[in-house]
Amino acid sequence: MQSAQKLELALTLVLIWGLTQSLVESRRWQKSVQLKLHRETNHSKVMESFPSQKLRLKEKLSTTNELVISSASASDTSVARDNLFNSHNTEYYVTGSFGSPEAQQVTLLMDTASANLLVYSSKFVTESCSGHSGYSSSESQTYQANGTAFEIQYASQDVLKGFLSTDTFTLGDLSLENQTFAEINSAPAAMCQQSNYDGILGLGLVQIALGGVKTPLENMWDQGLIDEPVFSLYVNRNASDASNGGFLLLGGSDPTLYQGCLTYVPLSKVAFWQITVGRVGIGSKNLCSNCQAIFDVGTSLIIVPCPALKIINKKLGLKEADKKNGVYIIDCSKVSSLPNVVLNIGWKDFTLTPSDYILNYSGTCVSGFSSLSDCNGTQAMMDDGEDLNSMWVFGDVFFGAIFTLFDFGLNLVGMAPKV
């Protein structure tokens, strides 16, 4: 009798899970606002960008509590389907605009590991950040002063400073009224010199939003601009097609862009887009079981713990001598003979082939795997005490192979192989 009851309970749970999956999947057929992605073709700064990317990622994950928000005035120095660009398969940009009636167009870095909207002020661009575009509140009729000052103190001792402002923000055909954002008037020199963007579009959850500011995603949903509280990413890494970098889809998904049905998994922690991965393997080697992973489209590579990186590099025939600018260079002629990497997520296997995880920059091939530290035993911690060096981070190498949907209503992530 007891065995029969257990079987009945198991079948009931399977039925409930199946119905839930069907319900969630049916919602994804809602019409989405599709923003087309485009590519840039200048490859001069590709290799130099990797170290700064990893430093920025480490700072995002480990210094959340170091954000300082104040009610002081902005001048108080004592404060303790629009265009998305793919820069060499390393960073993805969207074109947005601020203010009205004349839209002030800027290029924004997409970032799923942060949740705020940030943009350079026009005064800062003129004085300290030439070559970029900025926002001028004096040129907008819909600007609302806020003045709450802020600063982000990074572990590298660099500081990002500015103040909050409110205005109309437009992304594609969506115009968000009363969107509060951070207007940057001081930033690390490297942010201007080594980047192509004028600000950051945070696509993370409100739990990590600076100062509890309502995120652009929340405003889209609250203002009735999207049908469902979701967004999706389809990344096209076809280097031969400079005009098509993929799509950012707001409010739904497009089943023509992926194979089969989406596999949904719940967030393991409601802060970053973080899930539990059942297993990662390369060839016959197991790299991790029940490991934690964060999705970050603002990071180019897949960041892995040091023990896993050592196994991967051995399988790929890489040594420390092959390392340059924090990444590993591999002979392009060997790529076709490399093993697949398999990610088991939500009881489904997702395969990354060598062409998925090896980046080819005009004949220079780079491994898509790296570590956050130099693997010398130094331990970095997240704010909740979790070892940062044990975390997996799925960057653009992952998105290049897997269509991904983010549900900020149900706190789920859905995945399927791209078409």
Description:
Keywords: Aspartyl protease, Disulfide bond, Glycoprotein, Hydrolase, Membrane, Protease, Signal, Transmembrane, Transmembrane helix. It holds the Pfam family Asp. GO terms for molecular function: aspartic-type endopeptidase activity. With 419 residues, this protein is of the alpha+beta class. 19% of the residues lie in helices and 37% in strands. The protein folds into 2 domains: 200 residues, Cathepsin D, subunit A, domain 1 (Beta Barrel); 164 residues, Cathepsin D, subunit A, domain 1, CATH 2.40.70. The protein has 8 helices and 27 strands. The protein is globular, with a radius of gyration of 22 Å.
Which descriptors apply to this entry?
single chain, 419 residues, alpha+beta, Cathepsin D, subunit A, domain 1, 2 domains, 8-stranded mixed sheet, 6-stranded mixed β-barrel, 8 helices, 19% helix
Short description:
By secondary structure, this protein is of the alpha+beta class. It contains eight helices and 27 strands.
Q: Could you give the topology of this structure?
A:
Elements: H1 2-27, E1 33-40, H2 46-62, E2 67-69, E3 84-87, E4 91-98, E5 104-111, E6 117-120, H3 122-128, E7 144-153, E8 159-171, E9 174-186, H4 189-193, E10 199-202, H5 216-222, E11 230-235, E12 246-250, E13 263-266, E14 269-270, E15 273-282, E16 285-295, E17 302-303, H6 306-316, E18 323-324, E19 327-330, E20 341-345, E21 348-352, H7 354-357, E22 358-361, E23 364-367, E24 369-370, E25 392-394, H8 396-399, E26 402-407, E27 412-417
Parallel strand pairs: 1-3, 5-10, 6-9, 16-25, 17-24
Antiparallel strand pairs: 1-12, 2-7, 3-4, 4-5, 4-8, 6-10, 7-8, 8-9, 11-12, 11-26, 13-27, 14-15, 15-16, 15-20, 17-25, 18-19, 19-23, 20-21, 22-23, 26-27
